[in-house]
Inverse folding.
């Protein structure tokens, strides 16, 4: 039990800026296993984002509340996934060889491709959540799940990449490297469970069984991005996982909108 708590707190400390017990020390083994809780982290991020939206909506209205909620999620995670997404935009947009792509992605400076990518990504998040918040006005539980589900299934999509493709980075000695390596399949099933629970709850509360179909575009996205990374650099890196998560989050919002509108 103590070891499992340490693994969970390791996940919290790595994937968020939430303070953890001071006695927690870096352990590559715990970091390696922390992927099992990545979708549970999605619960925390989604719930926090919803809480900010719910409270500020009464003061400044939905539009400002959504901007604040998106900002809150970014601050809570330290822009971990957004940074990976921007690096991938810069790397694959400006690099022509594997070495050059990896070099650009490790550069801390933000380029044109990354800037444009972040702007488009945040705009799509805002507009998607705006539509969904209008649909679920007054339905607090469904709206809460609308904020949580994309954060969980998108993280599951990202972590599934490590079981299908090879690691292509050059981060030996990096504390982050254990996170990007494939772990026991047991960890994936735990992550899957924490992703299925909120999605199933949304299906039940919303009376929309076809919402389960959102896993199809997410799987297609994973394959397309995974194959693209494999073609260009021979596999994935930590930045690639962040990019997959961000794109999957957008696809989740758009898929939910489509299901609600047409089914």
């Amino acid at each position: 039990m103590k070891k499992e708590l340490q693994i969970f707190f390791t996940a919290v400390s790595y994937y968020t800026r939430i303070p953890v017990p001071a006695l927690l020390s870096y352990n590559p083994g715990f970091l390696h296993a922390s992927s099992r809780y990545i979708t549970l982290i999605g619960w925390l991020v989604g719930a926090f984002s919803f809480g900010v939206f719910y409270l500020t909506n009464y003061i400044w209205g939905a539009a400002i509340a959504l901007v604040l909620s998106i900002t809150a999620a970014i601050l809570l995670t330290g822009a971990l996934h957004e940074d990976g997404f921007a690096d991938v935009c810069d790397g694959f947009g400006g690099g022509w060889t594997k070495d050059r792509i990896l070099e650009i992605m490790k550069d801390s400076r933000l380029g044109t491709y990354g800037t444009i990518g972040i702007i488009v990504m945040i705009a799509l998040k805002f507009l998607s959540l705006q539509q969904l918040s209008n649909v679920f006005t007054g339905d607090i539980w469904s709206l809460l799940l609308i904020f949580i589900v994309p954060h969980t299934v998108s993280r599951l999509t990202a972590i599934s990449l490590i079981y299908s493709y090879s690691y292509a980075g050059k981060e030996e000695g990096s504390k982050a490297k254990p996170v990007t390596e494939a772990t026991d399949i047991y960890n994936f099933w735990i992550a899957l469970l924490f992703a299925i629970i909120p999605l199933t709850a949304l299906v039940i509360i919303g009376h929309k069984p076809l919402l389960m179909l959102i896993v199809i575009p997410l799987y297609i996205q994973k394959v397309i991005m995974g194959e693209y990374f494999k073609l260009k650099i021979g596999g994935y890196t930590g930045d690639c996982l962040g990019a997959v998560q961000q794109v999957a989050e957008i696809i989740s919002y758009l898929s939910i909108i489509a299901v609600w509108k047409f089914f």
About this structure: The two ends are 44 Å apart (CA to CA). Residues 39-262 form one domain.
